[in-house]
């Protein structure tokens, strides 16, 4: 029997296989660690999808990681492995906090996120263009630099005078309206979806998008066609910086209850890393990222329910995410499986 | 002043161990043509499993061997995907790094029941062989030096080393000479990951004596930068590892010295190893040359 799977369906199916493998291997690890996998997963899925509240929490958890995924995805589509989303989120959040406390409106917060994102991503972009520094090494090093600089700013420059465990908060006038009362879902979610659609439009319907994709597909062909590689590298980082900067900003302005950065950056840490997984499962495609973002959001939202109801540490979902990403890395997963099955 | 200098020197020799082991391993892997950026995750996971094995067996040495074993398995996974399935070299590495974040974040509370951090009891840690007033030296410091020197010798002075380098420089020619390109690449990848695994376990059962979610702290990538700095040369990686280890140790020392904390915020000092890495990599590019077929999957025509 020959199954004909065309361009679009094949990556979709491969991502689904990776997800299933991730969940299955996760179940094995759960069982080995002495937990009941069925109990754990049913708590997770029920918590994330079993109610209107669960769905709202899923979508709100998807909001920042869709944007950080776009950072990695835009990079990957242009031939770069931009892992700097993590550090950029911190500065996007800090910039939004500072600007909205000066001018109390959402637009200034978004602008702050965008400017901070571009500014921070300019460093690996310039290092790449002028010194040829591999972006994997530079963005990871810059994530660590960002981590400590952000800690300094949070503790020393913008602490909450009434509560030393937090930073100053977003003023009421600059907070996104909540969509469903009593949940964390605000209209910030729309920003992420719009950003993905804009990224899609740029990549497939503009000249610069075409140049970016050609550079990602075949660097030599791009150079032969007269595309300036420096320009595409800078554009890739700038667009990526905007996305992660926005992620930090809307996480501050659109995610109750604190509207501030909490101690140890707990509420803004890890989104850049999550975004890499989201992007890879979405095949680095902006539209794929919307769906895989919601899937990873579901894992995040359900993790809390799993911890409360089944007593499984919520970090379990990170293991599942990791296995999914390693599986996604296997080329021709579908063909490989077919060969194994045939044997 | 002399005391401080000596204690930082000894500290640098210790901090050098995971960096040098990983750099030397990565050098062999890349000399054979396989790029692996998953060392960060390997260091983190093997630190976790190293401590676990040490506490189960009651011997820190079993912890070290166990860490190397886990590293070996992760190297086999990477080698299988990149060498035999001809996959991209970067993405599986990213995957292993992400997986490590999950495994350690889940593993610490699941296994030890503590959130975020576990202290390895002193009887499960390796006893230093040299003790001075300025600090002590682990036997692993000497093991690391021996491994770097031996690897250098094998890589540049033996037929085996020539074959490893040939599959990374010109796999077509190596293949034509009857060298099994895939086997050499796979084994070189496994060797690299095994050394990193030894380095990861060293962090938990010897040097730092703790397991945390951020224990590797970018050292896997600093080791890759050190490899570039060395020009893919194990002996120079030993020297570079000492320099990076110096800044690594210096930042820890300054962070915990109250007099300096008053002048410079500790967070600024903590960024030092990463900034030094960036500066050195930016400065070395163009002066060193990577193996020609580095990172390129080899498909027999």
Residue ranges of chain A: pLDDT <50 for 5 or more in a row?
none
Give Rg of chain A in angstroms: 20 Å
Main sheet overview of chain B: 2 strands, antiparallel
Oligomer: heterodimer
Low-confidence stretches of chain B: none
Indicate the proportion of strand residues of chain A.
Answer: under 5%
**Domains of chain B (count):** 1
Tell me the CATH topology of chain A.
ABC transporter involved in vitamin B12 uptake, BtuC
Radius of gyration based on Cα positions of chain B: 19 Å
Mean pLDDT of chain A: 93
Please count the beta strands of chain B (DSSP E, at least 2 residues each): 4
CATH class of chain A: Mainly Alpha
Please count the beta strands of chain A (DSSP E, at least 2 residues each): 0
The CATH first-level class of chain B comes to Mainly Alpha
Number of domains of chain A: 1
Strand content of chain B: under 5%
- SSE string of chain B, helices as H and strands as E: HHHHEEEHHHHEHHHHH
InterPro entries (chain B): ABC_transp_permease
Organism (chain B): Thermococcus sibiricus (strain DSM 12597 / MM 739)
Protein name (chain B): ABC-type transport system, permease component
GO molecular function (chain B): transmembrane transporter activity
């Amino acid at each position: 029997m020959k199954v004909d799977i065309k361009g679009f369906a094949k990556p979709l199916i491969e991502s689904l296989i990776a997800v299933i493998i991730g969940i299955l291997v996760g179940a094995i690890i759960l069982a080995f660690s002495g937990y009941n996998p069925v109990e754990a997963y049913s708590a997770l899925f029920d918590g994330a999808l079993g109610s209107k509240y669960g769905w709202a929490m899923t979508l709100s958890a998807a909001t920042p990681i869709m944007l950080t995924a776009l950072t990695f995805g835009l990079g990957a589509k242009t031939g770069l492995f931009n892992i700097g989303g993590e550090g950029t989120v911190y500065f996007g959040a800090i910039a939004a906090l500072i600007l909205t406390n000066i001018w109390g409106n959402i637009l200034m917060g978004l602008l702050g996120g965008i400017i901070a994102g571009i500014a921070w991503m300019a460093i690996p972009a310039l290092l790449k263009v002028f010194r040829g520094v591999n972006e994997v090494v530079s963005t990871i090093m810059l994530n660590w630099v960002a981590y400590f600089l952000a800690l300094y700013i949070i503790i020393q420059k913008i602490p909450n005078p009434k509560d030393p465990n937090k930073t100053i908060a977003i003023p009421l006038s600059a907070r996104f309206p909540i969509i469903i009362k009593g949940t964390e879902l605000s209209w910030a979610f729309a920003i992420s979806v719009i950003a993905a659609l804009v990224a899609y439009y740029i990549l497939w319907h503009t000249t610069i998008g075409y140049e970016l994709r050609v550079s990602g597909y075949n660097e030599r062909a791009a150079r032969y066609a007269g595309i300036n590689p420096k320009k595409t590298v800078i554009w890739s980082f700038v667009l990526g910086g905007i996305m992660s900067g926005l992620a930090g900003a809307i996480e501050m302005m659109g995610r109750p209850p604190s509207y501030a950065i909490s101690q140890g950056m707990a509420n803004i840490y890890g989104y850049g890393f999550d975004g890499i997984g989201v992007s890879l499962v979405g095949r680095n495609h902006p539209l794929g990222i919307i769906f895989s973002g919601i899937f990873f959001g579901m894992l995040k939202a359900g993790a809390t329910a799993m911890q409360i109801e089944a007593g499984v540490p919520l970090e379990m979902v990170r293991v599942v995410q990791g296995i999914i990403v390693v599986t996604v890395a296997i080329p021709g997963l579908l063909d490989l499986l077919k060969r194994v099955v045939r044997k | 002043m002399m005391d401080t200098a000596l204690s930082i020197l000894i500290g640098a020799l210790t901090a050098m161990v995971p960096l040098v082991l990983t750099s030397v391993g990565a050098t062999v892997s890349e000399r054979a043509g396989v790029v692996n950026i998953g060392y960060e995750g390997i260091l983190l996971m093997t630190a976790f499993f190293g401590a676990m094995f040490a506490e189960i067996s009651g011997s820190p040495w079993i912890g070290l061997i166990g860490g190397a074993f886990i590293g070996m398995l992760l190297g086999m996974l990477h080698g299988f995907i990149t060498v035999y399935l001809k996959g991209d070299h970067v993405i599986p590495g990213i995957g292993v790094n992400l997986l490590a974040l999950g495994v350690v974040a889940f593993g610490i509370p699941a296994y030890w029941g503590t959130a975020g951090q576990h202290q390895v009891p002193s009887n499960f840690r390796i006893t230093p062989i040299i003790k001075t007033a300025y600090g002590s030296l682990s036997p692993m410091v000497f093991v690391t030096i021996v491994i770097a020197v031996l690897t250098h010798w094998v890589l540049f002075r033996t037929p085996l080393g020539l074959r490893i380098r040939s599959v990374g420089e010109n796999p077509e020619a190596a293949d034509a000479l009857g060298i099994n390109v895939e086997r050499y690449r796979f084994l070189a990848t496994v060797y690299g990951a095994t050394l990193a695994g030894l380095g990861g376990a060293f962090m938990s059962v010897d040097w730092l004596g703790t397991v945390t979610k951020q224990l590797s702290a970018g050292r896997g990538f600093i080791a890759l930068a050190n490899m570039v700095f060395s020009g893919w040369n194990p002996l120079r990686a030993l020297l570079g590892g000492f320099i990076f280890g110096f800044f690594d140790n210096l930042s820890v020392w300054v962070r915990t010295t109250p007099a300096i904390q008053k002048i410079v915020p500790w967070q600024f000092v903590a960024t030092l190893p990463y900034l030094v890495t960036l500066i050195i990599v930016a400065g070395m590019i163009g002066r060193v040359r990577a193996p020609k077929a580095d990172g390129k999957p080899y498909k027999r025509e």
